[in-house]
Amino acid sequence: MIGCGGAGKTTVARALARRHHLPLVEADAIVHGRGPRPEAEWQAELNAHADGEAWVIDAMKLSLLEHRVARADTVVFLDLPRRWCYLGVAQREHRRRDLTNSEFMRWIWDFPGRARPRIYELLDRHRHDTDVVVLRSRREIHEFLTTHG
Questions:
Q1: Which terminus of the chain, N or C, has fewer Cβ atoms within 10 Å?
Q2: Are 144 and 133 in contact (CB under 8 A)?
Q3: Reported pTM
Q4: Alpha helices, DSSP H only, in 21-81?
Q5: Section 95-113 average pLDDT
């Protein structure tokens, strides 16, 4: 499960994990859940989960994406417009503090120009052995969850 912050990755990942009886790995819990950790430590933990047999991983860290995509049989990319991502952040009570985090808000703003092209390049390289689902609207997400989640 990949996409910009606020796109709905966690919601979709949880639904897919429940529906398919797979373990859910939430990167936010690994990276932020136990207090500050060295990046090398949480990167190793996230990659170790990706090396498992079956999982749903809710994570966007671009530098670790290659490993997860190579290990995944399916990648769901929530490629929503930034206005929907900002709204998604605003609607999450537990994440409202992110609205005052200028670095996080800038990451959302920059996502279409910086991350999106690199994501599509990576997904194109793995299309021969990884199914790719791109959802570009809340309606498409709803329809996807109706049939898959």
A1: C
A2: yes
A3: 0.91
A4: 27-32, 39-50, 65-71
A5: 82
**CA angle 41–6–1, rounded 5-degree value:** 60
Strands (E), 34-145: 56-58, 74-78, 131-135
DSSP strand E in 35-130: where? 56-58, 74-78
Dist. CA 24–CA 13, nearest whole Å: 7
The Cα–Cα gap between 137 and 79 comes to 8
pLDDT digits 0-9 by tens, 37-47: 888 888 999 99
Q: For position 23, what pLDDT does the model report? A: 97
Q: What is the mean pLDDT of residues 115-119?
A: 97
Which residue(s) pair with 3 in the sheet?
A: 78
Q: Are strands 2-3 and 74-78 parallel, antiparallel or unpaired?
A: parallel
Cα–Cα distance, 5 to 27 (Å, whole number) = 12
Helix (H, G, I), strand (E, B) or coil at 8: coil
